[in-house]
Every structure is written in C-alpha cells, then in structure tokens.
Amino acid sequence: MKMATEQEALDLLKSVGVDYRRVDHSAIWTMDDPNTPEGLPEVKNLLLKDKKSDRYYLYLTDNHRVDFKSLTNQLGLGHSRLAFASEAQLEALLGVVSGMVTPLALMHDTDDQVTVLLNKSLQSLPEISAHPNINTATILMSYADLVRVLRAMGKVPVVIN
C-alpha cells in the first residue's frame, strides 16, 4: 500500500472547499506527547477491528474512555470483541502508522472496508483537529466540514454515544 501523504490530504480539503487553519509543530506520537501545542482540541483516532475482520475508524474526544462493551452493543456486534488494529493493518488500510491516524487517511480505504464512527461529543467542539497524514502539523476545521470531507470520500459516518 502506498503511504498517505500530506499533499493528498491538503488536495482533498481544497477539492471539498474546506476552510481550515493549520498549526505546525514538533512530531506528536501519542495523546500525552509533551510536544502537543496548547489549545488544540484533544481528540483520539483509533482503528479497531472485530473477530470477523470488520474494521472501524473511531474518532472521539480525548476525555472519553473507550467503553468497548458499550461500543459493541451500539454496533450490534453481540459477543464479538473489538481490538486495536495492528500496525500492519493501519498501513494496509489507511497508509499511515501509529501516531499519524487521521480521518483524512480514509481516502486510502478504496475497498470500503472501514466503517467510520464519530463520537457525538465531537459535535459540540468549536473545531475538530486532524493530522494531514503527518504528525508534525494539525488541521483545524468545523465538525460540519469534517462530515463533508468524509462524505466526499464516500464515508457516511455513524454517530455513537
């Protein structure tokens, strides 16, 4: 799989007509990274899978702990267990590595293997943050623009609690 690039992400935002703000910074690898600039919306980006090989991209605010039992119930997965996708799966499905997971990389899911899950609390944020396929910059946009970008990639997000 070809790795996702910054230019692809910026071209996508331009093609959809998204107004965004860009913040350049040192590489951010985790939510607790000391390089994280002050004032950025704290969000989590996770690629999850279940036993049947279904894949889920989960985007939520950082103050929410992932309740896997509740999430499997909301998705109607029964007794299936959700787990984090491997590094190899991240690269194969989205063209990114851990620390660079972003909704903008979903353009690489050309076989539509990933279901997008947006935590409802994201709607109340004044801005959504997302890496442009690199972790040395952050793009800030509205929730409505995020949904427009997802739809432009053929992704209809499922809003979860």
TrEMBL record:
<keyword id="KW-0436">Ligase</keyword>
<dbReference type="GO" id="GO:0006412">
    <property type="term" value="P:translation"/>
</dbReference>
<dbReference type="GO" id="GO:0004812">
    <property type="term" value="F:aminoacyl-tRNA ligase activity"/>
</dbReference>
<keyword id="KW-0648">Protein biosynthesis</keyword>
<comment type="similarity">
    <text>Belongs to the PRORSD1 family.</text>
</comment>
<keyword id="KW-0030">Aminoacyl-tRNA synthetase</keyword>
<dbReference type="Pfam" id="PF04073">
    <property type="entry name" value="tRNA_edit"/>
</dbReference>
<dbReference type="GO" id="GO:0002161">
    <property type="term" value="F:aminoacyl-tRNA deacylase activity"/>
</dbReference>
<feature type="domain" description="YbaK/aminoacyl-tRNA synthetase-associated">
    <location>
        <begin position="43"/>
        <end position="148"/>
    </location>
</feature>
<protein>
    <submittedName>
        <fullName>YbaK prolyl-tRNA synthetase associated domain-containing protein</fullName>
    </submittedName>
</protein>
<dbReference type="InterPro" id="IPR007214">
    <property type="entry name" value="YbaK/aa-tRNA-synth-assoc-dom"/>
</dbReference>
<dbReference type="InterPro" id="IPR040285">
    <property type="entry name" value="ProX/PRXD1"/>
</dbReference>
<dbReference type="InterPro" id="IPR036754">
    <property type="entry name" value="YbaK/aa-tRNA-synt-asso_dom_sf"/>
</dbReference>
